[in-house]
Write a structure and sequence with these properties.
About 45% of the residues lie in helices and about 15% in strands. It is an alpha/beta fold and about 350 residues long. α7 packs across α9 and α9 packs across α11.
Length: about 350
């Protein structure tokens, strides 16, 4: 038995692969890991698996139908877990085409390849097969202060090219279930944080910049609220959905940690001051408010009671324990941080934030 993981060299995907293979059990199902290794895909995330026969890495695009067909025929996985996605809102504003190609067209290719592949399986194999699509809470749009958190029945109201492309992919997955009977599961998660997070997202960007004494850019007033989920908890939730989720259902996965961005930045600064003091003074001095991005959603919040009620999952980490683990991990893995900060990454950060002025 094998599972096919797409996007398994990215932040959440690589954490899932490592978690899956470390979970034990006899035998541990091997993973075929398909990743295109774009800027956010990093084989260094998987360095500890070098020589492990349970992990087969294949460099390739989920939009490559011939490749996907070959992997399904060769490895005959009993499940697909689809992490592969372009996921950074700012990049989607500057270049939405890549998001349509990967998130919409790529998901379509995976669904079609899976639909054809299932026809070649025996009845028992078809009934056991699962296609788990990993998505985001951003498909639901923005919540007003005090409004109830997103449930699985909340209407889709995406506000960025990124969230629109993910909403489209969610709709495709739903349609392939209702039209073709594809055995799908969908998860919509809140903001993840933790090890191996590419340093363009808020928390790793703040850690990396603060250690270098660089400005810590905060959009607008910094009071955009997000629900924060430790990536290890997300991996555990996906395992639960894959094992026990009801076919055709959507499960929201959240951390029960609503916090404004400015508080996140201040918390990271305080932890860095505690763990590695800066002779120049508290790192909160580096906080720099910059012009807000277009269409910036004000608040996200996940109601995760369905997955708790049906599958018995709850996050193990509080934000306080998870963020401390995260900051410590970055301090202990300076070599990883240096490796991912390529010239292309530095150029992008300079281009994106360099022209912004304080509001």
């Amino acid at each position: 038995m094998t599972i096919l993981v797409t996007g398994g060299a990215g932040f959440i995907g690589s954490n899932f692969v490592l978690d899956w293979l470390a979970a034990g059990g006899e035998p541990t199902e091997p993973i075929v890991n398909l990743d295109a290794l774009t800027y956010a895909g990093n084989l260094h995330n998987l360095a500890s698996l070098a020589g492990d026969a349970r992990h087969v890495f294949v460099r390739g695009d989920i939009g490559d139908r011939l490749l996907v067909d070959r992997l399904l025929a060769e490895h005959r996985p009993r499940a697909i877990v689809n992490f592969a996605a372009e996921s950074h809102v700012d990049r989607s504003i500057l270049g939405p085409g890549a998001f349509i190609k990967t998130n919409v067209e790529g998901t379509f290719t995976l669904l079609e390849a899976t639909r054809v592949h299932l026809q070649s399986l025996e009845l028992a194999e078809r009934e056991a097969f699962r296609f788990l699509h990993v998505s985001t809470d951003e498909v639901y749009g923005s919540l007003a202060p005090g409004a109830p958190a997103f449930t699985e029945e909340h209407p889709f109201e995406p506000n960025s090219p990124y969230s629109a492309s993910k909403a489209a992919s969610d709709h495709l997955v739903r349609a392939w279930f209702h039209t073709y009977g594809l055995p799908v599961l969908t998860t919509n998660c809140s903001n993840n944080y933790g090890p191996y997070h590419f340093p363009e997202k808020l928390i790793p960007l703040v850690i990396v910049n603060a250690l270098a004494g660089k400005p810590l850019p905060v959009y607008g007033d910094g009071w955009q609220v997000r629900d924060w989920l430790y990536v290890g908890d997300h991996c555990a939730a996906i395992r639960a959905v894959l094992a026990r989720g009801r076919v055709g259902e959507t499960y929201n996965i959240g951390g029960w940690n609503e916090k404004p961005n400015i508080e996140i930045v201040q918390t990271v600064c305080a932890l860095l001051d505690e763990m590695r003091p800066d002779p120049a003074g508290p790192r909160a001095r580096l906080i720099t408010h910059v012009k807000d991005r277009p269409g910036h959603d004000r608040r996200y919040a996940i109601d995760a009671r369905k997955i708790e009620r049906e599958l018995g999952w709850r996050p193990a980490e509080t934000f306080e324990t998870g963020i401390r683990k995260t900051v410590r991990w970055y301090l202990e893995h300076a070599d990883w941080v240096a490796q991912v900060q390529s010239g292309a990454y530095r150029d992008w950060v300079a281009t994106h934030y360099g022209g912004r002025t304080a509001p």
